[in-house]
Amino acid sequence: MQILNPEFLQTLFLTFKLAFITTFLLFFIAVALAYALVYTNFRFKSVVQVIVSMPLVLPPSVLGFYFLMAFSPANFFGRFLDETFGIKLVFSFEGLVIASIIFSLPFMVSPIQSAFSSVPKNLIEVSYTLGKSKFITLLRVIIPSSKVGIFTGCVLAFAHTIGEFGVVMMIGGHKKGETLVASIAIYDELEALNYTLAHQYAFVLFALSFIILLSLFFVNKKFTSF
After folding, report:
1. What is the pTM of this model?
2. Three-state SS for 21?
């Protein structure tokens, strides 16, 4: 059975590994960004908001192209990382993680930002009145009151990372066992006319997307029904 094919299982493992690491790291970045955008005023705040939202409208190939140019050892930043830290991001798993974090940024930040905006101000003021710091208020008041938005952001970022194609193709290529993820594997198997294996990859992603969205629907329904 091809479903027990080690290469098939390895590609799925790499796909989920990328999605889990991206979602985990993105959570901390998104919470910090959402907090800054909702509760602080600073110069160029609108510019930061636009930059966070850019991946929503940019073609993935455009973002992938600029990642490729920035991380390439032939250019300044890539050469600096290579010569100073020995880090090579082009066609590597680490490069995939960084590219996925940036490309999935709005899918995590937007729901959390919206949830933070909905937290009643009197709860936050009571916390400050009781002498709690901004950080403790974030941990004990804002985040617990925003759990649905945070869950939604995590689910969307996870699902988006699994299904991403353009950025992943350009920055990671398709090195088996290193950067080949399921969305790229479908394309490779179609080119090789191996429709059976392409269907297996496609079905796994289809079923997973359905389950993720269904769970998101039920969670939102449960918390909004109170």
Report:
1. 0.87
2. helix
